Amino acid sequence: MSQTVKNAGRINQFREAVIKNLKRALPDVRDCSCQFGRFNLEELETQMLVAPAIRVAVLESRLNSVASGQQSADLHLGAFIITTGKERDVQSWLLAEAIAVLCHSGQLWGLTHLSAPRDVQIEPIISAAIKQRGVSISVVEWHQDLHHLGQDIFCDEGQLKTGLLSCDNESWDNEVCP
User: Fold this and answer.
1) Are 111 and 14 in contact (CB under 8 A)?
2) How many other CB atoms are found less than 10 A from the CB of residue 48?
3) In angstroms, rounded to a whole number, what is the distance separating the alpha carbons of residues 175 and 115?
4) Burial grade of 80 (CB within 10 A; 0-12, 13-18, 19 or more)
5) What is the Cα–Cα distance from 81 to 95, expressed in whole angstroms?
6) N or C terminus: which one in the chain shows less Cβ crowding within 10 Å?
7) Which stretches of 103-165 are DSSP H helices?
8) How many other β-carbons are positioned within 10 Å of the β-carbon of residue 94?
């Protein structure tokens, strides 16, 4: 997927900014990328992962209108941590703690127009099937308000910009509004 498509829209920009910051802060994590929805055993079986790995997901987005007519979203986020090996539980808790600490009250992930993280929690995801595979999965979840939704994705005519849904689009400079 092109970088332009990955960064189209505030929610995608936000998720990519979180991933970029986690990669920088946790250099020993071998695989850090986006996830659509919750990570579970089915995902583990269908995705090629190199542990330790982190998958960042927007789990829910509740929209709120503000007085200016703009939309804001209360985002519910999850950073899913996948570890393997003898020390998988120790590694999982270490990474979960590190991510939770990164979700401090001043954390804006290099962006503007968002609130500080809140309601940060760590939860191990346990199942017999996961334990049998020698894998630990845990999640750090938090909420963060994202403002100015829809910024830069619509033309003056109120239509979604051409090319945003195409994986072949490589540049905003090529955008043409009908």
Assistant:
1) yes
2) 6
3) 30
4) buried
5) 7
6) C
7) 128-132
8) 15
Q: What is the pLDDT of residues 116-163, one digit of tens each?
A: 999 999 999 876 677 778 889 999 999 999 998 887 777 777 778 877
Distances from the Cα of 117 to the Cα of 48, 50, 82, angstroms: 30, 28, 22
Element (H, E) at 71: strand 71-84
List, in order, residues 6 or more apart from 54 with CB less than 8 Å away: 22, 26, 29, 31, 32, 33, 79, 80, 81, 82, 95, 99
Amino acid at site 102: L
For strands 53-65 and 31-35, give the pairing: parallel
Euclidean distance between CA atoms 117 and 112, whole angstroms: 13
142 vs 73, 79, 101, 148, CA distance in Å? Answer: 13, 9, 11, 20
- Two tokens, residue 36: 């659509």
Query: What is the full per-residue pLDDT of the chain (178 aa) written as tens digits?
Result: 455 555 688 999 999 999 999 999 999 999 999 999 888 777 777 777 899 999 999 999 999 877 777 789 999 999 999 999 999 999 999 999 999 999 999 999 999 999 999 999 999 987 667 777 888 999 999 999 999 888 777 777 777 887 777 655 444 444 444 4
